[in-house]
Amino acid sequence: MSATQPYIPRSGERVSGHDRFRRSRMDHLRVWWREIDRVLLGLVLLLMLIGTAAVATASVASARRLSTADVTLPDLYFYWAHIRWQLAGVVVMLGASTLSLDNARRIGILLAGAMFILLALVPVLGVEVNGARRWISIGMRFQPSEFLKPAFAIALAWVLTWRLRDPDLPVIGVVSGAMGAVGLLLMLQPNLGDAILFGGVWFVMIMLAGVSLPRLGGLIAGGFALLTAAYFLYDNARHRIDAFFGGGTEYDQVDLAEKTLLAGGWSGTGMWLGIRKLKLPEAHTDYIFSVIGEEFGLLICMIVVLLYLALMVRVLVRLTNEDNLFIVLAATGLVTQIGGQAFINILVNLQLFPSKGMTLPLVSYGGSSTIAICLTVGLLLAITRRNPFLSRGKGGIRERLAEVLPKREGPGS
Description:
Blueprint: H1 17-35, H2 38-66, H3 77-97, H4 101-125, E1 127-129, E2 132-138, E3 140-142, H5 144-160, H6 162-165, H7 171-187, H8 192-209, H9 213-233, H10 235-246, H11 253-263, H12 288-296, H13 298-318, H14 325-349, H15 368-383, H16 397-404
Antiparallel strand pairs: 1-2, 2-3
Helix pairs in contact: 2-3, 2-12, 2-13, 3-15, 4-5, 5-7, 5-8, 5-14, 5-15, 7-8, 8-14, 9-10, 11-12, 12-13, 13-14, 14-15
C-alpha cells in the first residue's frame, strides 16, 4: 500500500502567492455563506428593497416641501441619496457579518464606550435640528444614539454573562445604572422615543438573564415613575402625549399620517399617484409607512408588518437550542431593538402611539441612520452564525443556566 505523496514543484516552478491568497479568501467566504442565516439575510434585503421603492415615491413629496425660492430639489433627490446610503450600508452589513463572535463582542464594547462619550458631549457640542440637540458633526453629521443602539445590546449582554462566573456579582445593578445614565443623556436632548426604546431593550435582556419577581416589580414601578416625571418635566414629552390622547395643534402630522395611510385603501393609488403624501412632513423618513399605505395599499403594509414579525421570530427560533448565554442575550437585544423601533414607528403612523420622530428601520430614508441599522443587522448575523455540521450536546441555555446558577438567587441578581 503506497501513501499519497506530497506535491513537489518541479525545477523552476513556483506556487503563486496571489493564488494561495485567493483560495484562502474564497474558502473563508464559503465558510461564511455556510454558517450565516440566509433566511434572515433574505428578509433584511427584502425589507430594504421595499424601502427603495417607498423612498422613490416619498422623495417627490419631501423634495418639493424642502425646496426654496433659491434652491429647487429634484423630485428624486432623496431616492438617489438613499440608494447611495443603502449600498454603503450593505457593505457595512456584510462586512460586520464576517466577524467572529469574539471580534463582534469586542467591537460592540468599544463602540458602546465611544458612543456613550459622544452622547455625553451632545448637550455641549451637539447640533440643534427642529428644536432637538441630538447630532454630532465630525466630518459628517450623525446621532451617537443610533450607533449606541447595537453596541448597547452587546455591552449589556457581556456584563450579564459575568453572572456565569460569579453569581454574586451585581450585574443587574450595573446594567440598570448604565440604562439610567443613557436615559438621562437622551432626555437632555430631548429624545423620549430612543429613551423608551433603550429601556425596552434593557428590560427584555434583564428578564431573559433572570431577575427575581420583587425586583422586577420594583423596576416596572420605577419605569412608570420615570415616564410620569418625563410628562411633567419635559415639554416635548407632554406635548406629544397630550396630542396623542386629546389632540393638539403642534403635532397634527400624526393625524395627517393616519389619513394618508388609509387614503389608498387595500390596493393603493399606484406608484407616484398619491396626493395626501404631498402635505405630509418627513414623508421619506418618519412617515414612510403612511406613504406605503397610500400608494401601495394596506395589503403591502400588512406584508411589511409580517416581514418584521418573521425577522424577529426567525432569530428567536434560531436561539432556541443555543447554549451560549452571550449569544442568546446579545441576539435577543439586537432583534428587540430592530423590532421595537419598527413597531413604534408603525404604531405612530396608525395614531396608536405618541409621535416619537423615529424612522422605520431598513425602509426609511436615512444617511448615518441607514449605516447604523445595517451595522446592527451585520452584528446580528455575525452573532447568530452557526456551523451546520456541529451538533449541540446540551438542550439549550435553560439547562446551561440550571447547571451554573444556584437554586436561590444571590445578592448579585
